[in-house]
User: Fold these one by one.
Assistant:
Number 1:
Amino acid sequence: MSALLELTNITKTYPGVIANENISLSVTKGEIVALLGENGAGKSTLVKAVFGLVRPDSGEIRIKGDLISAGDTAAAIEHGVGMVHQHFQLVPVMSVTENIILGDEPRKGIFIDKKKAREEVVALSKRYGLEVDPDAIVEDLPVGMQQRIEILKALRKDVDLLILDEPTAVLTPQEIEELLGVIKNLASAGVGVLFITHKLREVMAVADRVVVLRNGKTAGATTPKETNEEGLAQLMVGRNVVLQVDKSDAVKQGIVLSIRDLQANDDRKHTAVDGFSLDVHAGEIMGIAGVEGNGQRELVEAICGMRPRLMGSVLVDGLETPDMQPHKVHRMGISHIPEDREKHGLVASYSIEDNLVLNQFDQPPFANGWIRNSNALEQNANTLVEEFDIRTPSIKTTAGALSGGNKQKVVVARELSQNTKVVVAAQPTRGVDVGSIEFIHKQLVSARDHGAAVLLVSAELDEILSLSDRIAVMFGGKIVAILDGKDADRAKIGRMMAGLAS
Ligand SMILES: Nc1ncnc2c1ncn2[C@@H]1O[C@H](COP(=O)(O)OP(=O)(O)OP(=O)(O)O)[C@@H](O)[C@H]1O
Ligand SMILES: [Mg+2]
């Protein structure tokens, strides 16, 4: 039997980069193939070529034996290919139902049959066990929920080949389990799956085969039976990666960040942060553990001056920071690695060089009054690109042209390079490869060791456990317990996160 998908010698170049170089790969019916590689290795480019969104310079794409012309998305869809993109393609102002049916709406005469559409979405969501509110407006929803909508949209038409480009990056552990279950069920029903992820545990759990890309080329292939997480990391990065965080005991100093009785609403005007008080000391990493949707996002935004504080205050070194003035809050010493880098972290049309100084572009040494200091800007960019291993052809490249993980590295580099008193890091390693996770973790520990107060918010319990000196468990907008990082127990925290007494 011929393969479901057969790629032969795919090559694609961009100015200054060979994104894909002679890559060959196949997926058969019912097979789950994991595609791994560092940030910028060429994974998204390759799967976009399959879906017709990228036109390869050369090479052959066959689906179910038929030759597909380069850039022919319609042919890919006709041949049963469904794709979940790394970056959301949803229309923010439309409802969940409208987004899922977009482009192929059920009709009654010339009108969209809204009732039928809604029923279809409810049925779809039940069938795959991915719960969504069909009437919610997409822009009001957290990223994890938006990801679910993308997945349902891709599954709406029966597909033979499902391509998932980092679908789990923004999901909670619970949601990931569910999605992996959905993927396995689809495969047993005969669907071929091409699955991109940076989470090696997921690869070990579901993949039949693993293909690794490095610098645009195939670096190797293996199976979960033949290897383990360390082996996969080694194959991806080409060196030994330490998956554990190596850190000394915290040298805790005075209180720097003080959050007092903070209250804030979510976008639907419901209470999300409900009388939250916490002190973070210089020289410690305070982790916030919690199931997504318990007010973490709103907490971070309220601290950073991006969401109204209805009550309470946020102090840095005893000085009250202003409400709704992110720029001033930043100037007072709070840097922020935002969870949604596309929306808050970067300006896609600006160069990497400019993105690396977004909050300081009008400050010395980068500007003297109204005059830009190009030398200082270039020097800053070159140093950070080197230090944070941002893979780009040039510092003048626009941020929008970077691969997903490299965008994240730009944000992290900017925020950690400023020696601020407080670092608020929300999902700092979302979407970055194992080698870079290791690096970002080291940087957070080093910020701590240089005396910063680090507030770490992460949906990855493992990340919280391995980095935090103290852990605050958040549930229903409040802190339910504060534990010492050393004797924190995974199961106990899990129960607290679910709102159960310890
Ligand atoms: N539209 C574009 N214009 C210019 N360069 C691009 C474009 N898209 C991708 N590239 C470059 O091609 C290379 C491969 O990018 P790609 O997005 O395929 O990486 P990836 O493996 O998906 O990485 P990540 O894990 O970070 O998502 C990168 O060097 C990237 O900068
Ligand atoms: Mg990618």
Note: Residues 142 and 293 are 8 Å apart (CA to CA).
Number 2:
Amino acid sequence: MDIDEVIKNRRSIRKYKDKPLTKEQIIDILDAGNRAPSAKNRVQWRFHVFQGEAKARLVQTCRETIEKLPKIPLMASTHNSYNIMDKAPVVILVLQTCEWGGIGPEIQSVSAAIQNMLLKAHSMGLGTVWINDVLFVEQAILQLLKIKVEESEMRSNLVEFGEKTGMQVGYSSPLIAAIALGYPDEQPEREPRFTIEEVTKWYE
Ligand SMILES: Cc1cc2nc3c(=O)[nH]c(=O)nc-3n(C[C@H](O)[C@H](O)[C@H](O)COP(=O)(O)O)c2cc1C
């Protein structure tokens, strides 16, 4: 498929056929993610692929945990997102290494990897949706994955630099997003977009 066609026709897919993917298909998609550009070429993404019973346990963890949390309006979509993960044959959790503490560059690298995977999947006739709603239950997911965040020397250096310069040194969880993946069972319309004029300023 031509790159323009892939970019223009990709849509978030939230309904999937009950048809499994082969391991080769999943690896092709991970490979596309792994070819993304990354800050200092340090490939800050990590992929955790869930299918079958492991995916069911992941979704159950999300559902049970969200029930126990205080509700805020942004959470309204979580049930829907967890249902999508439940029905999709594959869910890929995408994490960042956090060697710099999860500041901007790492998230940018990982986002590039995610977009590569969404485009690759579409080019293979598969559907995806990028799911942020897992972040509300990140602690429970990190426990499930047995991941602990360690303070790194690079992050300590950055914090020190931030204190001296007033630069805001951010911190983010290792968990960035989930990708639901499968054969599409819907053909959504294009979501509205701002025009180029609305999102661009030109400097000459
Ligand atoms: C960072 C990010 C987080 C998102 N999180 C969710 C989510 O949690 N649940 C969901 O159903 N869709 C989620 N989406 C999908 C967006 O709703 C979707 O991309 C947007 O509505 C545009 O539609 P399109 O992808 O079909 O062009 C997310 C997309 C991005 C880029």
Note: The radius of gyration is 18 Å.
Number 3:
Amino acid sequence: MQREEIINLAAGPSTLPQSVLQEAAQGLLNYEGTGIGLTELSHRSPDFTKLTTDLENILRKHLNVPQTHRVLFTQGGGSLQFSAVVMNLLSRHRRLYPDLPEKDRVMDYVVTGNWSSKAIEEAKKLAGPCTVHTVFDGREHSADRKFQAISAAENWKISNNPAFVYYCDNETVDGVQFDGYLSKEGENNERIRFPFHALPRDPSNPTNLVPIVADYSSSFFTRPIPQIEDHAVVFAGAQKNVGPAGLTILLVRQDVLVPQPTNSLYPIPTTLEYATLAKSGSLYNTPPMFSMYVSLLIMRHYESKGGLSAVVAESKIKVEKLYRSLEVGEKKGVFKLRVKDGSRSYMNVTFEVLGEGNEAKFLKEATEKGLRGVKGHRSVGGIRISLYNGVTIEQVDKVVQFVLEFVEKNAS
Ligand SMILES: Cc1ncc(COP(=O)(O)O)c(C=O)c1O
């Protein structure tokens, strides 16, 4: 098979722009005329230091990262951040409220899908005597106990002074996302944005909200981060929209960057401590150099196409086209969209193919047409089509054509 014959709609790692990969292949052999391939350079060389600064600057510029926040690069993926945020944010809370009994230190979790479920389980493992509190669990608001929607903040139980409030912007497995720009106006649909307005102020610094932690693994650099300044930590693995796997990007506010006292009863492993990463300029140990390199090339590629606003505009076109075609199938009894309007993801579109044997038929025919990676996550089944930044409008047009043909053939 040739690359041109395939439309890679996988949930991550996912497709990356071909021109960038070609450029990266060249840099792998000879990085910017140094005669040394990128992965053969020293990570402390001036060439790589410049690359790190350039990557930070381009992210800062397009995401409007405020000066109160550091941009950090590390390894371990979103999964390791499930642990790191617990340790770093509890440490901050202990510094600010040393006399508080440990059981009164609360971590608030908003559970909207598979990934925030995993994050809360990790917090329970690491909490010790501290309390892990579920602010909202999407399963409790659906008839079949599946993640299908996010409800408005009236249903949320937020603690008064939590160590942090955690949410996942886009649930990659379930296809549930905050910010319902997809929902149609005038149809009584709730447009579910993250309810910053419902969060209490931080008693230690009332100009801020209580610390917010957000997992942006599958929506980083797909739209501006709403109220970015109110987040204590934003984290994302690069491998969906920004680059190859291996790189984890962190945006961390200064008040989380205080080193732990050496005699702490609750030590944080050195490589997981945000203060260490910040102090060393993300160079405490060897960073994921190749992934950072490709990510920088990808950022430059998006910059040349008009930056984040162009990415957003393209994304809107792609999701509108795909959801509209699926709605045609839904009206004709061929598909069932999994997620309620208002909480639908614009990155991972999940649905079921109705009727005995029809899902297998859909998958077989999709494969014949060159569509790849559309089988739903093993935990939920069904179909999942991911529309990350690397998927082009032309490719989505082909997907839509396939979907509509399938509907025509299978409508009863
Ligand atoms: C929303 C979200 N969070 C966390 C993760 C885990 O990321 P990683 O595999 O980089 O640890 C993923 C992976 O797909 C994800 O989609």
Note: Residues 12, 77-79, 115, 168, 172, 215, 217-218, 237 surround pyridoxal-5'-phosphate (CB under 6 Å).
Number 4:
Amino acid sequence: MDVGIVGKPNVGKSTFYSAATMAPAEIANYPFTTVKANVGIGHVRGKCPHEEFGVLCNPNNAPCENGTRLIPVELIDVAGLVPDAWQGKGLGNKFLDDLRQASALIHIVDASGSTLADGTPCKIGRHNPLEDVAFLENEIDHWFFSLLQKDWHKIVRQMSMDGKKIDRVLQEKFTGLAITEAQISAAMRKANLDPRPDKWSDDELLNLCAEIRRSGKPMLVAANKCDQASDENLEALGKLAVTVIPTSAEYELALKKAAKAGLLDYLPGADSFTLKEPSKLNMAQKKALDKISQFMEKFGGTGVQKCLETAIYDMLDLIPVYPVEDENKLTNKEGLVLPDAHLMPNGSNARELAYRVHTDLGDNFIRAIDARTKRVVGHDHVLKRDDVITIVARR
Ligand SMILES: Nc1nc2c(ncn2[C@@H]2O[C@H](COP(=O)(O)OP(=O)(O)O)[C@@H](O)[C@H]2O)c(=O)[nH]1
Ligand SMILES: [Mg+2]
């Protein structure tokens, strides 16, 4: 379940990505290596069950800081998108390839209006950021549209000959983009089209593409560079139909670097930080940190962590679950207590968790045990947020 960071050039995508994927000060590195240069590990916060159970945890995949688990999520720094990329301009195909892997998108917009449509820097306030939101949505819609239109006659003919369901045909066209049949079906219902695809106009097909984008690639807007944006711009962005979160990626990166250098204590997502040794700071640093502090007070933080958590917990509706092998000691087979946190789609069942841990565990599933209640449950038992679950499988 990767989150893609998208937007036109120079809006702060890479800054956001660097800030979000920088390991917290206390943690040298996540125990992960990523395959691609533009894929990194960020995290979302969860409540570690260790306090509730009165145990000390031995985190493996998700570090625990004072009871807060930092659960890993993969972030993709998507290639910058310029106008008409769907026609092959700029890094169009690279964009599609990155988009393919992303389950949700964070659209970084320069809320201060200091970059033109193609990403060229300009005076603050010169460009209207609302245009960028419409632009990116439009761009993706056209991309999907061109994918379908290319073979549209063939698709229609094939359907009338084989009697194939349109949802199925569309899903096959979109498998490359990791859009599921359920998402296509949801989009079809919303688009409310004539049952006969040969009757669809181009406009209707384009509208269907927009619905497929909404269900298949849910997106929130990060109103970035908020540290220099006007209140009017923020207000206008706030009125959009999408979720808009004010951010300053630059401030988040500065705070993480300062924390790493030992100058301050800062937990990502917090609305403040504490200086460790104020006497060590020079005037310029003091002034900069003062500005950041005021910003955080006004917006409730830098917004970066909020974007990730909104994408994972609200848009993708994932929940953290803790599989353990021993429901009494809460250990895995190495004896580590509450080692791993997994993000599962809300509504997942015990067998799906077993498969997430290991294919064998899913294949040989017998039953599960809820470590909180010690109740034995079946394969179709629906998981709840922060469940601690033991899976019993045939050996
Ligand atoms: N004022 C301000 N500048 C930012 C912010 N985020 C990024 N920038 C600056 O915007 C420019 C472009 O940033 P970059 O991350 O390379 O953008 P990308 O092309 O979208 O990846 C750089 O000069 C950044 O320092 C922010 O939150 N506030
Ligand atoms: Mg970049």
Note: Residues 13-14, 80 surround magnesium ion (ligand 2) (CB under 6 Å).
